[in-house]
Every structure is written in C-alpha cells, then in structure tokens.
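Thread amino acids onto this structure.
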C-alpha cells in the first residue's frame, strides 16, 4: 500500500482493471484473481522490492559444484540474498523503482522456478505455505483496492512517505503507514 500511495496512478490502473473484470456490484473472490494481471503484477513487484525476509533459509551443498563461476565445496552452508537479487541492475531495469508493469506479459513466477524472483524460496526448502500466502495477499490487496479509495492524510505529500525498513528475521516498515480510506463500492455491499 505504501508504494501504491506514493504513486496514485498505479491505484487508478488497478481499480480500472477491477471495475472492468469484477464490476462494482460485488467483492473480489479467489476465483477472480487469475483474471487480474495488474493486481498480480503489483504483488510480484512488492515481493521483488520488499521481500518479507532478506535471506532464504540456508542450504547445504551436498556435493562439490560450480555456481556462476564460484566453486562451492560439499558441506558448505549457502545463504541466498533475495533482497539483493531483487535490486540487481543486471537482472532488473531501474531496480529501485516500483514498477508493476515490468511483470506484465512475462512468465516470471513466484513459485521457485524463476530464480530472479524467489519470495518463497525454491525446491525442497520452499515455504510450504506459499500457495495459501499468495492467495491471501492477492485477495486482500484486490479487495482493499476494489472496496476503498485510498489517500494519504491531508498534511502529507507522496514524497513525504518514508519507505525505510527495519531488517531482521522479517522485514517491516520502520514507521507505520497512516492512510485515509473511504468506501468505493455501493453501501449495501458493506
């Protein structure tokens, strides 16, 4: 929501998609999510730029191997920094910008097959709750945008919104987000 509030035109694009696909007479349901590519792109871009945890669970090399020219010896504990991967300019154009459009029309998944985006990890050490987590995040975001108009408080400008994070086991905002909302759908739906 912070990234969207910094760029209100992204909220407008998302709500246009929601109005076109869902209409304004009901809430978004789980079955609707595959028909909402812009919502999916926002979720992917958020996971790229703001991963919940900066490092994947440690992996252990079970045999000697070569990864991108680096010799990894059997028994080495390997940590993968997905925060750095998400900001790598050799992988992403303008990696510091929040741009959901970078995922439109591209087959980059979040289920561990596209190594440039690993929010849930990959392989045997992949988060077992990824499917549930993805559905909850997508449905919640879609309904927050579909059901409400969002804006910053009157005394705050988009550029004043801090994007500072606190890093630890999980990454969280350094300062809480304060936002104003008002109903967007007909009142009988609330």
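Threaded sequence (190 positions):
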């Amino acid at each position: 929501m912070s990234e969207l509030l910094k760029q209100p035109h992204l909220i407008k694009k998302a709500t246009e998609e929601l109005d076109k696909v869902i209409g304004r007479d009901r809430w978004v349901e789980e079955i609707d999510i595959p028909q909402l590519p812009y919502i999916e792109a926002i979720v992917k871009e958020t996971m790229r730029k703001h991963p919940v945890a900066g490092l994947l669970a440690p992996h252990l090399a079970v045999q000697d191997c070569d990864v991108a020219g680096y010799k990894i010896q059997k028994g080495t504990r390997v940590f993968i920094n997905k925060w750095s991967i998400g900001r790598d300019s050799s992988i992403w154009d303008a990696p510091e910008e929040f741009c959901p459009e970078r995922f439109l029309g591209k087959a980059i998944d979040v289920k561990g097959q596209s190594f440039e985006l690993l929010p849930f990890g990959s392989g045997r050490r992949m988060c077992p709750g990824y499917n549930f987590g993805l559905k909850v995040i997508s449905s919640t975001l879609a309904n927050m945008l579909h059901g409400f108009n969002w804006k910053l408080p009157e005394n705050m400008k988009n550029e004043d919104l801090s994007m500072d994070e606190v890093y630890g086991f999980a990454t969280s905002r350094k300062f809480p987000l304060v936002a104003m909302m008002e109903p967007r759908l007909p009142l009988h739906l609330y």
